[in-house]
Design goal:
Elements lengths: L5 H15 L8 E2 L3 E2 L21 E6 L5 E7 L2 H8 E3 L5 E3 L9 E6 L7 H13 L13
Helix pairs in contact: 1-3
Length: about 140
């Protein structure tokens, strides 16, 4: 497993779009980086709704250096992220899942609801190419 920065993963998303998506399909909706532990309420993150909440898509979990540690997919991105991160008593982010390193950021990529199944291909493409440390789902290796 190697460390892969968010920018490099987003380049792979663009590669996937160019090589494997039809030109007439709705563009993928890539969120801004969402901070799980923002220093102020004005920062984009924990005090805001999940990016691409309620949509089909792929989500990227990152460490403090914005290296992608996990790639997942869901029919409702917000619900899935809420399985991993919830409110603590003081309303800060509480990490529910066990990760190899502490997550700090999230980025989401929504697909059109008419092509909901595309999230599965995008997720596998990214896992195959990135091999994030906390993904054991992929049956493939890029070695």
């Amino acid at each position: 497993m190697k460390k892969t920065a968010l920018n490099n993963v987003l380049k792979l998303v663009n590669e996937y779009s160019e090589k494997y998506r039809g030109k007439n399909l709705e563009k993928l909706s890539i969120s801004n980086t969402y901070d799980l532990f923002p220093k102020t309420k004005e920062s984009y993150g924990w005090f805001n709704e999940w990016p691409n909440n309620g949509k089909y898509g792929v989500y990227l979990i990152m460490d403090k250096d914005k290296n992608v540690i996990y790639i997942g997919e869901s029919s409702n991105i917000g619900n899935r992220l809420s399985d991993y991160f919830q409110y603590s008593e003081d309303k800060s982010c509480k990490i529910i899942h066990k990760w190899s390193t502490t997550p700090k950021y999230v980025c989401t990529i929504a697909v059109d609801s008419k092509t909901w199944f595309e999230r599965l291909a995008l997720e596998e493409f990214l896992i195959f190419n990135v091999q994030p440390i906390d993904n054991i789902k992929s049956k493939y290796s890029n070695n």
